[in-house]
Amino acid sequence: GLIWVRSGKQIWMVNPRNFIFTPISYEGSNGFYGNSGIWLKKDASGNIFLLITDKSCQYYSEKNGRFSQAHNPFSIPAHLKIQDVVEDEGKKRFWIVSREDFGYWDRRTRQYYNLSNNGQADYLLKAMTGYAPVASFFIDNQKRYWIQAGSKSNTSFLCYNSVLNRFTSDTSGLNSMGKGSYFEVYGFKQLKEGAPALYGLNCFRILG
């Protein structure tokens, strides 16, 4: 397979056989975002996309050899200050995390639903009206949704089991994250051993 590298504002695709670095272009490459503003990610289907926080999400096209919003498999309001995109293969949707909203784009209806427009009466979306804003969102291989909600000064963690359609107590202990010290959650990761993990600044936890 290929190796993807971000260095500053530059994105490179590396062939590990001959170590040839190929620069990859994207929309907004002349802007200034800081090191934490540009993220290379992979969705559940294995597609590579570029997330520029507060700005845009851009999927990579092998045909065109570049990142672009035109390649995105979903359509969302342009005003959203996007923070993350999480593909939900089971429900055929993309969850959209932004600073001012939380919702999903549905593949079947090709529409965006959010906290104020829950046209499909989704249980999780309805429940999250009391916890917004959402800071982090992750789906593990047991179809559990791990959610960090609230602000940095008043954060909480939730776990929603999409199979049972209810919240669980699997996040017990997470709310003591950082042990009273400042911490930041960078994300979640599914470990090869089967358990998901949460990682960040001054925090690391393997989840049950």
Characterization of the model:
This protein is mainly β and 208 residues long. Helices cover 2% and strands 47% of the residues. The protein has a four-stranded antiparallel sheet with strand order 4-5-6-7, with no helix packed on it. A four-stranded antiparallel sheet has the order 8-9-10-11, with no helix packed on it. A four-stranded antiparallel sheet has the order 12-13-14-15, with no helix packed on it. The protein is globular, with a radius of gyration of 18 Å.
Query: Major sheet: order of its strands?
Result: 4-5-6-7
The total of beta strands comes to 18
Chain-averaged pLDDT: 89
Question: What is the N-to-C order of secondary-structure elements (H for helix, E for strand)?
Answer: EEEEEEEEEEEHEEEEEEE
Give the helix tally: 1
**Overall 3D form:** globular
Strand residue content: over 45%
Q: How large, in whole angstroms, is the Cα Rg? A: 18 Å
Low-confidence stretches: none
* Estimated helix fraction: under 10%
The largest pleated sheet is described as: 4 strands, antiparallel
Broad structural category: mainly beta
Q: What's the end-to-end separation, in Å?
A: 31 Å
Q: What key phrases describe this protein's structure?
A:
single chain, 4-stranded antiparallel sheet, 1 helix, 2% helix
In short:
The protein is mostly beta strands and 208 residues long. Helices cover 2% and strands 47% of the residues.
